[in-house]
Amino acid sequence: MIQQNDFKRQWEFVESAALEAMRRVGASGWYILGKEVEQFESALARIWGVPHAVGVGNGMDALEIGLRCLGLRPHEKVVTTPLSAFATTLAIFRAGGVPVFVDVDDLGRIDLRQCRTVFAQDRSIRFFLPVYLYGFPLDLVELQNLKTESNLLLVEDCAQAIGASYGEAKVGTIGQVAGVSFYPTKNLGALGDGGALLTSDAQIAEKAKALRNYGQASLYFHDDVGLNSRLDEIQAALLSDALLPMLERWTKRRRQTAQRYCESIRNQHIRLPIPEKEMKPVWHLFPIFVPESSRENLREYLKAVGIQTGVHYPRTIPEQAAVKKHGSFEVLFDGSNARRISNCELSLPIHPFLQDDEVTAVIEACNSWVP
Ligand SMILES: *Cc1c(COP(=O)(O)O)cnc(C)c1O
Q1: Does 55 sit in the ligand 1 pocket, CB within 6 Å?
Q2: Within a 10 A sphere around the Cβ of 139, how many other Cβ atoms?
Q3: For residue range 138-152, what is the model confidence (pLDDT) as tens digits?
Q4: Is 151 exposed, middle or buried (0-12, 13-18, 19+ CB in 10 A)?
Q5: What confidence score (pLDDT) does residue 204 get?
Q6: Does 160 sit in the ligand 1 pocket, CB within 6 Å?
Q7: Which of 79, 89, 92, 171 lies 20 to 30 Å from 317 when distance is taken between CA atoms?
């Protein structure tokens, strides 16, 4: 089976560095918030080109802590996307905010033109939480303009997009805060949960460090109602020694595979995710778009020839039962494009351990499919 992710192949690449990192942490006798986390935070900040990184328990908490550091008030609106991992909206709920969903474009990214309209019509909206879905950057020039013109407090969800850029700008450098996830399937995946918040503001970094640790400002003195959301020493050591050093190579491999798919998949029933020329995606996923009525058919066809696919995501966020029960949200522009994409998207395998002949097999299977 050609899998969506292949962690066993990944382990072959990282085993010796990972075992060495584990041995070091075990022998150190220090397992929570020590020098491994500090060193990883410095390394991540350096490669990202942002002054501060703060390691936290997962990507969702990075977003919640980011919103709280920026002073989100209870019941305050946060403009975001209806098409993402559920954690994006969950972070807004947990921080006490009200998600305001605008629609998405044909690549599944939040529609910045609609956002511009929303911010122009309601000048009281301060918060914006865009997502770089599938590893596709947004137009970061326009994002910067929106932020400046509407005075926005911006938290960028980079969980799927570490290393992506648009023109000269990198994702995660426009907002006051960015969040990233080290969930194992992500482009920089730990061997367990993990996440980080990035910021160029030293005060925000300090506040985030307190919030991740029970809101503790100094030992046993608590200034805020915080979380328990710390990145483990062992995950930090694994990330530093075994995973971060591979990220550039693995991203390059994803890009090669994406390029082959874009050049060679030719089927009138399949729409490919062709990026605009300024976009430099990191291809967390490779979404293709097929008619709603034939997605299951293609999925079964590929499965029958040994190719596993995914759907990201089968239900939009405002349609989730949890959101309806919670009740505190708004949908603008009706979200019909998001629903359409949730019904016609299929993700092809694109992990960095795919071999050339496997990529060829995926291409041939797509090209020979007749719905
Ligand atoms: C994975 C993901 C998250 C949440 O990250 P966790 O580490 O699983 O909490 C948030 N947003 C997006 C877009 C994601 O893909």
Answers
A1: no
A2: 18
A3: 999 999 999 999 999
A4: exposed
A5: 98
A6: yes
A7: 171
Give the tokens for residue 37: 């986390």
Q: Residues 18, 189: contact at Cβ < 8 Å?
A: no
Mutate to test the pocket of ligand 1, among 5, 61, 109, 157 (most ligand atoms within 8 A of CB): 157
Whether the predicted model's global pTM rises above the 0.85 cut: yes
Taking a C-beta distance cutoff of 8 angstroms, is the pair 273, 288 a contact?
Answer: yes
Per DSSP, 346 falls in state: E
Q: What stretches of 308-355 show up as alpha helix (H) in DSSP?
A: 321-326, 336-344
Q: Is any ligand 1 atom within 6 A of the Cβ of residue 80?
A: no
Q: Is 159 in the pocket of ligand 1 (CB under 6 A)?
A: yes
Decide: 87 in ligand 1 pocket, CB within 6 A. yes
Tens-place pLDDT, residues 265-308: 999 999 999 999 999 999 999 999 999 999 999 999 999 999 99
Q: Which pLDDT belongs to residue 68?
A: 98
Does any ligand 1 atom lie closer than 6 A to the CB of residue 241? no
For residues 229-256, average pLDDT: 98
Which residue in this structure is represented by tokens 């009706």?
Answer: 334
Q: How far is the CA of 194 from the centre of ligand 1 (A)?
A: 10
* 87 CA distance to ligand 1 middle (Å): 6
- Looking at the DSSP bridge assignments, the partners of residue 157 are 131, 179
DSSP 118-181: HHHH-TT--EEE-B-GGG----HHHHHHHHHHTT-EEEEE-TT-TT-EETTEETTSSSSEEEEE
Residue-wise pLDDT for 115-133, tens only, equals 999 999 999 999 999 999 9
CA of 345 to the centre of ligand 1 (A): 19
Helix (H) or strand (E) segment spanning residue 303: helix 295-304
